[in-house]
Amino acid sequence: MAAKIEYPLEKIIDIKKRRVEEAEKNLKLKEEALQKEENILKEKEAQRDKVKQHAEDKLAQLRHEMDAGTTTDKIMQAKVYLKLCQEKVIVEEKKVAEQKEQVELAKKNVEVAKKELQQRRQEVDKLITHRKDWMKERMKELEVEEGREQDEIGSLIFNIRKLRGY
Question: Euclidean distance between the first and final Cα of the chain, in Å?
């Protein structure tokens, strides 16, 4: 039993392990991309909130001026400006909605990467389990072969001694 037992699928295990490492790197990249998209979403929400607040402030200012009694021209200008503010709010809402879609897409990519990593790990685990079982079986076979060889050697020695008259 001086010869080392070599598992025939060892190279495949190495390849599968490399694939697991690649899947881990891919998952990390997808998680980083998700984090970036979430940060962009926060920025866009903050920008939208800022525009909304500005529109609300201008509306409050218009009401205050109307209560104080101001000219019709100033009221008309304020209404036009307020309408522009509302349009900006709508534009910012669209940007936020589009970014939410990007975040959802990034989340789906992370989930796909997690599933892929899990599948690759399972493949490696299956091969490692197979290797353990194969090694046990191979060791049993070698023990049987060694026992046969010992029996043959023993019977040869017995026959030689018998022939020599010992």
Answer: 31
pLDDT means over runs of 10, the chain (166 residues): 74 94 96 96 95 90 80 82 92 95 96 96 95 93 92 90 79
Task: Indicate the domain borders of the chain.
Answer: 10-164
- Whole-prediction pTM value? 0.71
The answer to whether the beta carbons of residues 37 and 106 sit under 8 Å apart is yes
Nearest to 9 by CA among 128, 99, 112, 139: 128
140 backbone φψ class: left, alpha, beta (φ>0; ψ -120 to 50): alpha
Domain 10-164 fold is Helix Hairpins (1.10.287)
Please state whether 75 falls in left (phi above 0), alpha (psi between -120 and 50) or beta. alpha
Residue with structure tokens 């020599």?
164
d(CA 49, CA 94): 13
What does the DSSP 8-state code read for residue 3?
Answer: S
Residue 41: which residues within 8 A CB-CB, separation 6 or more? 96, 99, 100, 102, 103
